[in-house]
Amino acid sequence: MSAPGVAHPLGVRPLRVVVLVKTNAGGLWLLPQVEELRHRGHEVTVVLPAGNGQLTDELARRGFEVIASPYDFTLGPYAPVCLVRLRRLLRRLRPDVVQYHLIASAYAVRLATVGMPVRRVHMVAGPAYLESRLVRSVERFMWRLDDVVICGCRYASARYGELGCPPQRRPVAVYGVDTDAFSPDATRPDQRAKVRAELGIDQGAFLAVMVSYVYPPKRLVHSGRGVKGHEVLLAAWRTFRRRHPDAHLLLVGGGWTAAGESYRRQLGERFEVTDDPGTTWVESVPDVRPCYAAADVSVSPSLCDSPGAAVEAGSMGVPSIVSAAGGLPEAVTDRSGWVVPPGDPTALVDALEAAYKGWRAGTLTLRGRLARQHVLASFDDLRAAAEVADIVEDVATRRR
Question: Are residues 206 and 328 located together in one domain of the fold?
Fold first, then answer.
């Protein structure tokens, strides 16, 4: 277990909290939450898939105990045996609370802890799985094994409400963003020009950026289409770019898994990205903040998503165009961005036109300032982590 920090001011007894996530590559949004729990004097252990990963390395660097999960969160002939091993691990750790993120983790913990005297806190990172009719039919019963479902956006809370979950068991607490690190003042003054020069983007171009991994189409959710909406944006960009040759699109993010990378290559060929001087696709960057600093507008055209990239962009003072899907509309206001119907390239072109008009008129910077104000008020990660810790403590001390 990690070393205790400062005791909670309200005198809540120290808790043993096990946090379980099905990925060790991403999920850095977990860090403020576990730091807050430790700061309050609770003992925190994190269970992740075996092997090295960005999340594993960062947790270890911060002094958290990280244990390799005996279950890899996939269905297969050995899944029952691995679930038994996960149950044994959790019994050995004797947690007061198990907190889990991502739906595969939720299914694993729910099944592995049946009958165990432990509180279960399910936190919903992204609501895309609730778009599946099959998953919804399963969740209609499975959420009852959770003591609480912390929803990362109001949209997810509403969907669990439709499945019969009462309001007190589906509170909203966002994942948030580090508003100090993601700040217009956190990058060098010359960062905008430097990034554009390095990527071969004209200094005077209107630059739209999309920051997202490319996920392959899923059979159970939005069949045949990638959930992040890359093809929607690329289709819209064809039309928009013909009207405005001084516009440039920057895509940041490679394929998530080999299937995602294959789908990314298919999109590149279909929309002739390599031969398009108005589009640049970067698979990975060590830091996305300079890409936001170089941009005039961020675009999140997902078919269903959490606030995600729009919150990062807003924190950097960049306005966003988002689709009316999942929690994305919660990331903008009518004065800081634009909301368009999901999967609608024509509507996306209209929003890009509005942003371009604002860029030409010099009013886009005001939207950027308002975007940051909205993020500071609603998505600061330290405030959000405190809300999550409050819920964990409340669940742990509540009578069943």
Answer: yes
- The whole-number pLDDT of residue 221 equals 66
- Helix or strand or coil: residue 274? coil
Q: 24: helix, coil or strand?
A: coil
The tally of domains found in the chain comes to 2
pLDDT of residue 273: 93
Cβ atoms of residues 52 and 25 within 8 Å: no
Q: In this structure, what DSSP letter does residue 268 have?
A: H
Contact in structure between 54 and 81 (CB atoms under 8 Å) = no
CATH number at residue 238: 3.40.50.2000
Identify residue 180 by its one-letter amino acid code: D
Within the chain, residue ranges assigned H as helices are: 30-39, 54-61, 79-93, 103-112, 133-142, 154-162, 191-199, 230-243, 257-270, 289-294, 308-315, 345-361, 364-378, 381-397
Closest CA to 34 of 291, 385, 319, 378: 385
Angle at 295 between CA 352 and CA 326, to 5 degrees: 60
Cα separation, 65 vs 233, in Å, equals 41
Q: Note whether 348 and 340 are within 8 A (CB).
A: yes
pTM of the predicted structure, to 2 decimals: 0.90
My answer on whether 129 and 214 are in the same domain is no
Q: Which of 31-35, 374-378, 395-399 comes out lowest in average pLDDT? A: 395-399
230 and 312 both lie in a single domain: yes
d(C-alpha 242, C-alpha 19), whole Å? 49
Instruction: Read off the DSSP letter of residue 144.
Output: G
In a domain, 5, yes or no: no
Q: Determine whether 75 is exposed, middle or buried from the number of CB atoms within 10 Å of its CB (0-12, 13-18, 19+).
A: exposed
pLDDT digits (tens, 9 = 90+) for 377-389: 999 999 999 999 9
Q: Is the dihedral of CA 207, 209, 214, 218 positive or negative?
A: negative
Question: Residue 249's domain spans which residues?
Answer: 191-378
Please report whether residue 211 resides in a domain: yes
